[in-house]
Design a protein that fits this description.
Helix content: under 10%
Strand content: 25-35%
CATH architecture of one domain: Sandwich
Shape: elongated
Distance between the termini: 156 Å
Radius of gyration: 50 Å
Number of helices: 1
Largest sheet: 5 strands, antiparallel
CATH class of one domain: Mainly Beta
Order of helices and strands: HEEEEEEEEE
Length: about 160
């Protein structure tokens, strides 16, 4: 038998049909490595200032707010036209009023005046004056604490 010649052509295999080598290129080997497992170790940590060891629960502290009495707003309304340029004043007792010096009222309409007294703790007795000079005629008026009164004074 005759040996085939070593110079005979080898059969060629197309590149797609070639077997894949067992060693992958270096770039592929990085992705193919299995994930590393990191072992963790528990370490005892001393409690911080914010963390206090659990102790017997103390009763909660109760803060009592001071009792504030609601302020009764007393309102005096006057229906009168005292003329342009004049101001209506009120004098009396209670809620900071005085019989010696009047307190100006607010003109809310052509013939309507208003005064709100927030500090009334007792009924307010009063009388109205034009420009704090001319007293209204008739008896003194009285309004209860937290009440509203509408008067029509005459001068």
């Amino acid at each position: 038998m005759k040996k085939p010649s070593s110079k005979s052509p080898k059969p060629t295999t197309p590149p797609a049909a070639r077997p894949v080598s067992a060693v992958a290129p270096k770039t592929a080997s990085v992705a193919a490595k299995p994930a590393r497992t990191i072992k963790t170790q528990k370490v005892a940590v001393a409690p911080s200032v914010a963390e206090k060891p659990a102790t017997k629960a103390a009763a909660p502290t109760v803060v009592v707010a001071p009792v504030v009495e609601p302020v009764a707003v007393t309102t005096v309304l006057a229906q009168t036209d005292i003329g342009f340029g004049n101001t209506l004043f009120i004098r009396g007792e209670g809620a900071g009023l005085s019989w010696d010096k009047g307190l100006a009222m607010d003109n809310v309409a052509a013939d309507q005046w208003r005064l709100v007294l927030p500090a009334a703790t007792q009924p307010v007795v009063f009388k109205l004056l034009i420009n704090d000079l001319t007293w209204s005629t008739g008896e003194d008026s009285t309004v209860a604490v937290g009440g509203t009164i509408t008067v029509t004074p005459t001068f």
